[in-house]
């Protein structure tokens, strides 16, 4: 199934689905399948897993409805399955105040595992009106959407993660008087 035929979003709603996406290995498998279908062997090679481990994790993702078989073919009497994401994007539930943010934990793990050269990491502390805050959030989302549309599966992967948030009350910028 071509990527343009996929549903736009898949909302994670069950405990089984949340457990499936919470695992870093499965997160990385979904990243492999983000742009094009792949077999268990291809997934194992790209993620650096044994085929058995790759198969196990893909089965859990498939059972949770996050990935699906989109094509099969016979190779030396064996049916080879090609897996793809069930939707263009996965929407996770809000972790709630103080809860672990699975998406950000995976993003940090991916960032730490990435080569240092070519990284663009910045943090800015801002003071904005609610209108400016909302506008910035919308602009960041529009920019991410624009570049997602420009993505070409033949090019190397790049990840964009952003978090625009109000710090918890009581957190102050370093050096700010209390």
Automatic annotation (TrEMBL):
Keywords: DNA-binding, Transcription, Transcription regulation. It holds the Pfam family HTH_20. Gene3D superfamilies: Winged helix-like DNA-binding domain superfamily/Winged helix DNA-binding domain. Coiled coil: none annotated. SUPFAM superfamilies: Winged helix' DNA-binding domain. The keyword Cytoplasm does not apply. InterPro entries: ArsR-like_HTH, HTH_ArsR_DNA-bd_dom, HTH_MetalResp_TranReg, WH-like_DNA-bd_sf, WH_DNA-bd_sf. Residues 16-97 form the HTH arsR-type domain. GO terms for molecular function: DNA binding; DNA-binding transcription factor activity. The keyword Transmembrane helix does not apply. PANTHER family: TRANSCRIPTIONAL REGULATOR, ARSR FAMILY, TRANSCRIPTIONAL REPRESSOR SDPR. This is ArsR family transcriptional regulator.
